[in-house]
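Subject: Interface between my chains keeps coming out wrong

I've been trying for a while to get a sensible model of this assembly. When I model each chain on its own everything looks fine, but I need the whole thing in one frame so I can look at the contacts. Pasting all components below, labels as-is. Any help appreciated, I'm running out of ideas.
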Amino acid sequence: MPEILDQARSQVLENGVGLDEAGVLAVLNLPDEHLPAALQLAHDVRMRWCGPEVEVEGIVSLKTGGCPEDCHFCSQSGLFTSPVRSVWLDIPSLVEAAKQTAKTGATEFCIVAAVRGPDARLMKQMREGVAAIKAEVDIQVAASLGMLTQEQVDELVDMGVHRYNHNLETCKSYFPNVVTTHSWEERWETLRMVRESGMEVCCGGILGLGETVEQRAEFAAQLAELDPHEVPLNFLNPRPGTPLGDRPVVEGKDALRAIAAFRLAMPRTILRYAGGREITLGDLGTRDGLLGGINAVIVGNYLTTLGRPATDDLKLLDDLKMPVKALSATL
Amino acid sequence: MATSDVATAGAGAAWCDRCGEPAGVGEHVACRAARELEPPRYCAHCRRRMKVQVLPVGWSAVCVAHGEIRG
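Reply #2:
Try treating it as a single job with all components included. I did that and got this:
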């Protein structure tokens, strides 16, 4: 057994104290033959500190495309030659999407907009949309609308948005290679305001943007310092027309190593499978991740790409005897 | 309204609905594979970029000239 796993067993599993950056790096550098042991330990940590339940979420794009920012992985930036066109979702369709999501047993519905930050039109759409969903659907509403002002944070709280997603995307040292139109610190400031408001903080990122293994460890440590309620873990799905459109996808074993390492850095967080898992891990890898530290999934489609059918994920959870977290447990 | 097949392989498709290049030029193997996890982006009839809305279950794509398809 590698020394780092022995250390993690006593520090993380028994005492609930996450690994630091050096510890995460050691896990990320484990040779393949020790990956099953790392995943098993991460799974034990998840079961000990989070329990067997899996939080299921659906997401929908309220405003697609035409974003003024230049996040190099994103097909929704208006600065790249991506085929994604700008489109708004109307309120009846938003409510229908929430209903479809609730039918899967999901307790979370995240409304996402491709913007730098919300303007008056988007906030109005949110106000009307959240009210309409709450009137008709039993589901928790989360939002992801970019960088916020304090007034917008307060308004989202008033609407009843219970969780706010704002990904740091990658570590501080690599961020300028991925985004040049705003800074890592600006994102951090929004997250600070969200936390102070009482909304739950959802913050993760994307692996495979060209960061080094050391920077992956740096990212896990920075997320652990933020201590978010939820960490969505994406794997780059290279999008045509974006600056990262020709990058290779993350190797499956590296993705699984990262899942284990992030769990060992953050034993109590909701660690969610987000975009890219289908092409990075496939069906078998998806199962391995759920037995390696993941305790939440986005089901159904993503914002501009498609996921596997929700029924497939729900069947997998059933096979693994992992109950879907009930709405009553999230309130 | 019609249910979309992968237009790169569909009969009568003039344009690949993923890359927007002529459907009859090349095999578009990568496009067909990618379309398993992507909605169409280009109208297979006229190559216009479509307005595409992805929903938790399904998607819709609208060409200003040829109308809406869903999947």
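Reply #3:
Confirming on my end. The longest helix of chain B spans residues 29-35.
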